[in-house]
Amino acid sequence: MADSFEFEVTIPSDTAKGHEVQEDILQRLQHGGFPEHDLFGVKLALEEGIVNAIKHGNGLDPNKNVSVHCSYDGERVIVEIEDEGPGFDPGDVPDPTADENLQKPSGRGLMLMKAFMTRVEFNDKGNRVILEKERSAE
Amino acid sequence: MSAGQRRIDIEEIGDVTVAKFVDKKILDENNIQLIGNQLFGLVEEDGRKKIVLDFTTVEYLSSAALGKLITMDKKVKAVGGQLRLCSIRPDIYEVFAITRLNKLFDIRDDQEAALAGF
Fold first, then answer.
1. A105 in contact with chain B, both atoms CB, cutoff 8 A
2. Do B28 and A15 touch (CB under 8 A)?
3. Which of the pair, B29 or A5, is modelled with greater confidence?
4. Is the ipTM reported for this complex over the cut 0.85?
5. Residue ranges of the domains in chain B?
């Protein structure tokens, strides 16, 4: 049956390290009985969230870190990703699906996180995102 | 993976160039950069105008990869060419649908459908 887990890890602003954390979380979820069809969205959201923190939050600064806290209780996984950047206002991100933005090559990460996760929230400063995914009915 | 390794397989079918992604995951920043350069080379260096991108092997892609596809689409259109995408699995198609990029790109079910009438 489902195995719960909780851990925290701090990584430098390096996307390769970000992918290692991502793979680690996904493997633990798989072992923990998280449904396969929910993993696609979690993977996508983790990719966007961690890359955002490293690139846009920390600006790829090797002296800044990203901390990732992950907990899973068998029903839902909650991942908190915090960078050491100045933060941002998610309300300032233009709607990438608006006609005038459709051909812009960036600005879709936040929307994808929201689409695939049950809950996406930011702290007031905007340098920490909480990604929550509840397992869907089988 | 060496930096110079091809990330797309190229096949010529008539006057159409079919570019098939090698990777299951189009996520890593360097990899996306490499794929972007190889795709852009088809238009800018090789002068190809009818291009099909085959997603058969692709299981994951990120918003950064979508960005490269949009830039590729612009480059192809700029030279009066046409770009078609095909064989996108349902999970990935959902990414295109959520972002409304299914309206921007010409997406066909499979390679045969993509080549038809090209």
1. yes
2. yes
3. A5
4. yes
5. 8-108
